[in-house]
Amino acid sequence: MGDELPDAVLFCCTQNAVRSPMAEGILKSLMGTKIYVDSVGAREGEPDGFIKEVMAEIGIDVTKHRPKSFDQLEDNYFDLIIALSPEAQHHAVELTRTMACDVEFWNTFDPTIVEGSRDVRLDAYRQVRDQLMMRIKKRFGVE
């Protein structure tokens, strides 16, 4: 990838409640203000309590995050859109008709479908968080 980083990155998933806000929080924590980062969902979901907990475990505060959909995007200039679910990828590809940007598809497990005890469910969220952290560090050249 060299030294070229995108100026603006949009993460998207199905409801902008778990995967894309995790990715947004991680990239912001790694890059600070070097890259503009936002996230949206194919449709607007409800805030998720587990994400706040697992992100706080690694020192990232996502308590102010409010899920939003593509329709609610304030800025639609992005160099890179990273879709984390098939539904979001469809919306991302639609956006590229009006915006010159790259779309990457990182099919990411949805931890909200895991059933069981609180600990079992939190572990599913942690796995997704840790996978996103590794993938983002690799993609954006962060050690």
What would you say this structure looks like, in words?
The chain is an alpha/beta fold and 143 residues long. The chain has four helices and four strands. It has helices at residues 19-31, 49-56, 86-95, 118-139; strands at residues 8-13, 36-41, 80-83, 102-105. Strands 2-1-3-4 form a four-stranded parallel β-sheet, with helices on both faces. Helix 1 crosses helix 4 and helix 2 (49-56) crosses helix 4 (118-139). The relative contact order is 0.22. The mean pLDDT is 93.
Features:
alpha/beta; 4 helices; 37% helix; 14% strand; 4-stranded parallel beta sheet; 143 residues; globular
Q: How helical, in percent, are the residues?
A: 25-40%
Strand order of the biggest β-sheet: 2-1-3-4
Question: How would you sum up the major sheet?
Answer: 4 strands, parallel
- Along the chain, the helix and strand elements come as EHEHEHEH
* Strand segment count: 4
Determine the structural class based on helices, strands and strand pairing. alpha/beta
Gap between N and C termini? 14 Å
Q: In percent terms, what proportion of residues is strand?
A: 5-15%
- Taking pLDDT < 50 over at least 5 consecutive residues as the criterion, the unreliable ranges are none
Choose one word for the global shape. Answer: globular
Topology:
Elements (H helix, E strand, L loop, with lengths): L7 E6 L5 H13 L4 E6 L7 H8 L23 E4 L2 H10 L6 E4 L12 H22 L4
Parallel strand pairs: 1-2, 1-3, 3-4
Helix pairs in contact: 1-4, 2-4
